[in-house]
Design goal:
- This protein has eleven helices and eight strands.
- The chain is of the alpha/beta class.
Length: about 270
């Protein structure tokens, strides 16, 4: 059981603190109780956060680990001076040295998504998400030319979550198309996709793992049978080889790893962060 708490404290969403903190903590074989404290953007909230952190220190008899991304200097001071945890200030660690190196002051802007009404990148991201939803599982072949990436593969090979991740994280318009028995009979890519081959990336998966995933959705069906999964995966991989499409197996890879590989291979011109 976890016997120490790690806090992620931010005056924004806390996504940066949590992502960075978890990446560091993954290097250690230890179980921790995670507590996210987002939107700590006033003096009162800062004092409440300090009380919560210090209470954990008293109960556990160990210093909590506290990752912070705090742009508000007053809030930062309260946390820094009142907290009894091990404080890891990411903005102080990275922003201050960059200010010295660049010779300019940072904006001290709260959060990646601040003032979204004036952010073209944010609106582009929303448009990309809507596009990806509209072009999920081959729902629409219209406007494929506007796609930054087109994912192909058998059903349940990871196309939808990868498409949405690319849209949400990078603002990319991602379409995805499920390869089905009719496509295998034709022995070539659907005509609607052929014209956009440079944007296509294939996903495949181990047939045994695919059968497990499909059985969760349609147990004891032909769709989920191991024999059918082996056939579909084999046909899909053969089709991608013939078409000269780049592809990878998603069996043991995270969404982040899949997306990173796709970006390296496809290299879309438009990326937002």
């Amino acid at each position: 059981m976890p016997n120490r708490t790690v806090f992620f404290v931010s005056d924004g969403t806390g996504i940066t603190a949590e992502t960075f903190g978890n990446a560091i903590l993954a290097q250690f074989d230890v179980q921790l109780h995670h507590v996210r404290l987002p939107f700590i953007d006033t003096v009162d909230k800062a004092h409440q956060a300090v009380r919560q952190i210090n209470h954990a220190a008293e109960v556990e008899g160990k210093k909590p680990i506290v990752f912070t991304t705090l742009a508000n200097e007053e809030v930062h001071t309260i946390i820094n001076e009142g907290c009894k945890g091990m404080l890891l200030d990411m903005f102080g660690t990275f922003v201050n040295p960059l200010e010295d190196e660049l010779g300019i002051k940072s904006h001290h802007r709260i959060g990646r998504f601040s003032d979204v009404s004036k952010s073209q990148a944010y609106h582009d991201r929303i448009e990309a998400i809507n596009f990806s939803l509209a072009h999920d599982d081959g729902q629409s072949n219209r406007d494929l030319a506007s796609s930054d990436v087109i994912l192909v593969g058998v059903s349940r090979s990871g196309k939808t979550p990868t498409s949405l991740y690319l849209a949400m994280q990078y603002g990319l318009k991602a379409s995805n198309y499920p390869l089905i028995p009719e496509d295998f009979e034709r022995q070539h890519l659907p005509p609607a996709l052929a014209a956009h081959k440079s944007k296509i990336f294939g996903l495949t998966i181990n047939p045994e793992r695919l059968s497990e995933i499909r059985n969760e959705r349609r147990p004891n069906s032909k769709y989920a049978s191991l024999e059918n999964c082996r056939m579909e995966v084999g046909e899909a991989e053969s089709m991608m080889r013939r078409a000269g499409i780049r592809w990878l197996s998603t069996t043991t890879k995270s969404i982040e790893e899949i997306a990173t590989t796709i970006l390296q291979e496809i290299r879309p011109e438009r990326l937002s962060y």
